[in-house]
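In response to reviewer comment 3 from the previous cycle, which asked for concrete evidence that the modeling workflow produces usable outputs, we include below a single protein chain processed end to end. The sequence was submitted unchanged, and the resulting structure tokens are shown without manual editing.
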Amino acid sequence: MTMMIHRRFFRMPVVAAFFVPLLAFGGCGGQQGPGAHQAMPLAALKLRPEAAVVMQEYPARLEGRINVEIRPQVDGILEKIYVDEGALVKAGQPLFRIDGRLYREQYNLALAAQHAAEASAAIARLDVDKLVPLVKNKVVSDIQLKSAKASLQAANANVEQARAAAQSARINLGYTVISAPVGGYIGTIPFRPGSLIERSGSKPLTILSDVREVYGYFSMSEADFMQFRRQYPGATIEEKIMNVPPVTLLLADGSPYPEKGELEMVGGQFDESTAAIAVRAVFPNRNGLLRTGNTGRVRLESRFDGALLIPQAATVEMQDKVFVFRLDKSGKVRRTAFTVKGKSGDRYIAGAELKPGDVIVTSGLGRLQDGMPVKPVFGKAVQN
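The workflow returned the following structure tokens.
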């Protein structure tokens, strides 16, 4: 009996010792910290339709409305340069003179040949006039008159040929003085007096640029072009161009050109190598500030009514997609991808994936996961 009591006495602590750690472990694992299921208070934004201005900029190269290569029409020695590089000239103003002595002599010879041909034609006419009454009175045969008339026709043809040759020689003589076909600015002149000038030369004498108006050429990607077609009213591209607001030119130093321009042309096809389409804007240049060869950026402004604007700081970008954390009806966040229709300052214009009245979280994005409960706090600054 004593032995049995002794064993029972030692069994009880062993059983108790076995259950104590289990209770302690179970209490540790099952116990939830204070506020573990409570919604986290974070800054939020309720989306409302707003008016927005979107500005898109495209690198552009500038060219004068008219750029003319000044090339010689005759060969010879450059005798005189009347203008300096960069000079502003008027249409018809002399620019270069080629030694014209050879061409003057050629003209004189051609003119003399013309006079001789005219004299021969006059003699042939006299022969015809002399034979007409003789044939009428049957003094001479009709064959002689027909022969005289044929000689007159040949003489008249020689006159026409001589006159054409003289006219050609006169034109060539005129080509020795090269004048400006349009008004504009003179470009680089790679020749000097005494240089041999050839019509078939690879270099022009200079390039004359009419820059009273300047073209700004830039390229628009396929995605931007599709957006352009959707954005502006009109059944055709020409009608849409007419509805584009005035465009701005940003100069190379970033400053805006003081005069607005107009979109004037969109190319007829995409470049296969760049998948872009050419676009042209035109800018007035009354003060001559812009020159051919300048570079800059053309800025197009677009207006959106009823846009949903999303602060960029409230978004996350992954794998070329843009996401926001949107609150569902139960107060839990859901990561939602949306289409970016454009940018207005530091805000995105959201596509149809987001709706007016949606609430998005604007702070603490790095700590959020799908399904986490959040208590929206409105009116706080956007933080990331």
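The helical segments are 2-30, 101-136, 142-174, 222-231, 237-242. We consider this sufficient to address the reviewer's concern, and the full set will be provided in the supplementary archive.
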